[in-house]
Amino acid sequence: MTERPPHGTARPGGRTARTREAVLAAALEELGVHGYAALTVDRIAQRSGVHAATIRRRWRSVQGVIIDLLAQHSGSLPTPDTGDLRQDLHELARAIADYHASPRSRNFIEATIVAAAHNPQVSDIVRDAFTARTEQVTCIVTRAVARGELSPDVDAREVIAALSAPFYYRLLVLRGTADDRLVHTSAEAAYHAARGGVFVPPPSGP
Fold first, then answer.
1. Positive or negative torsion for Cα 43, 48, 50, 56
2. Where is each HTH tetR-type domain found (predicted)?
3. Please, what are the domains in the chain?
4. Which of 93, 97, 95, 44 is nearest to 69 (CA)?
């Protein structure tokens, strides 16, 4: 089954692209100022200068705009390649923390989780986006395997998940901030666990 492109992405480079950019930028600004609970199509229309009817026609709802924002931001974090697993994990942790340093980025992630909780279609898209991003950075682990730093049997996705999960627990559950201590502990925990064989599947039993 062919995946449908996000709403508002047709005819790239023309008026549609400019409209999409204005709407997504306005939605992100609104999230930073007022948060997800206050986000409405009318607010996005007022800030972007795009008529509310146009937004409803192309995105249908606030959730549609959030989905499109997620598609735009899913590849925005860099993938480190320092030649050393430990350093790569620290740089990735720092990139995650820096991304979530602004209120609008935190509100955006919260908005995607809230939207996913209320809409199964959004839930699928959010899951797929986070899965794709995890797959994108697993090359950090596969390169470490090639250098002999890790066992060839290591589960690269679990290494990245172990690094990332503490950030979302801190931000979404504890409502805290991603500080330098969290950057250090999440990277070190993922590194030592990977080196210690924690993410290598156990031998199959009888």
1. negative
2. 17-77
3. 15-72 (1.10.10.60), 77-195 (1.10.357.10)
4. 44
